[in-house]
Amino acid sequence: MLLMDSSKKISFNRCIRDGDLVIIYERHDTMKAVKVCENSVLQNRFGIFKHSDWIGKPFGSKVFSNKGGFVYILAPTPELWTLVLSHRTQILYIADISFVVMYLEVVPGCLVLESGTGSGSLTTSLARAVAPTGHVYTFDFHEQRAASAREDFERTGISNLVTVGVRDIQSEGFPDEFSGLADSVFLDLPQPWLAIPSARNMLKQDGTLCSFSPCIEQVQRSCETLRSDFTDIRTFEILLRMYELREWKIDHSKFEDGSSIAYPPCKRRQPSSEVSVGENTSSPAVVARPSAETRGHTGYLTFARRKCDS
């Protein structure tokens, strides 16, 4: 993920090596994570790709199959990992993640506490934000889920930045060893108000907290608990709207009111030699429209800042 070298410095520009985790990009909605193995092959609709052909190439390379088809080999950045990881739980996506990292003021060197770990989508981005000298301590009450998260963090190369613990934060709170040391705390729990008193004790003076909740009733109860020890309490809902750009044909033959007709793209274009001059009344134009797969509500993000002791 962060491509750590032997000196523990982050490098994004090295070439692919045997044993690396890479993202195979076919198109924007068809990607998969693959571990490079010199004697292995990848087979898909474009043909057979030899892993040995990938070794030594820089990330971002276009590689070809035995049939002449191609894919791109990309570095497993946190953004791409979010799109290909195994969903053990509902995950946070890029729009929410970027907002969380900014509003929690997560920068290199920070100590961040997280509960629960889930599929590790947010954890991966937090790890990149605190690198190379910070650390993320993430907790999940489900032992098998925590073990799977550890394996993923090993695969993506961030295990030196993340420690996964098994703990029910709602009932037990965060470990006392972090008392007063955390720069930020993130909660993704069914009843976050039960963990807020413990989170308050973990935070440094003026530290920040974020709670993710899918239901507004959870937000209301959390805010009631936050008012006693926190200030600057805000709740946001992030709605991401994506657009598709497609080529359409615009008919230049006018109606009486001067309007023109836009036709959807044809499956096969007629060769220009078969079109007479009189028939050539349309030209291509790029049209933008909202994607039919636009994601709606994911959850509410509530942020608060610990009050400084007087």
Q: How would you describe this structure to a colleague?
A:
This protein has 310 residues and is of the alpha/beta class. The chain folds into 3 domains: 21-76, Vcp-like ATPase, Chain A, domain 2 (Roll); 80-239 and 297-306, Vaccinia Virus protein VP39 (Rossmann fold), CATH 3.40.50.150; 243-290, no CATH class. 20% of the residues lie in helices and 32% in strands. It has 7 helices and 16 strands. The strands form 4 sheets. It has a 7-stranded mixed sheet with strand order 9-8-7-10-11-16-12, with helices on both faces. Strands 2-1-6-5 form a 4-stranded antiparallel sheet, with helices on one face. Strands 14-13-15 form a 3-stranded antiparallel sheet, with no helix packed on it. Helix 1 (78-84) packs antiparallel against helix 3 (121-130). The longest helix has 13 residues, at 143-155. The radius of gyration is 25 Å and the shape is globular. The two termini are 43 Å apart. Residues 6-10 and 272-278 have low confidence and may be disordered.
What is this entry, summarized?
This protein is α/β, with parallel strands linked by helices.
Q: Top keywords for this entry?
A:
16 strands; alpha/beta; four-stranded antiparallel β-sheet; 20% helix; Rossmann fold; Vcp-like ATPase, Chain A, domain 2; 3 domains; 310 residues; 7 helices
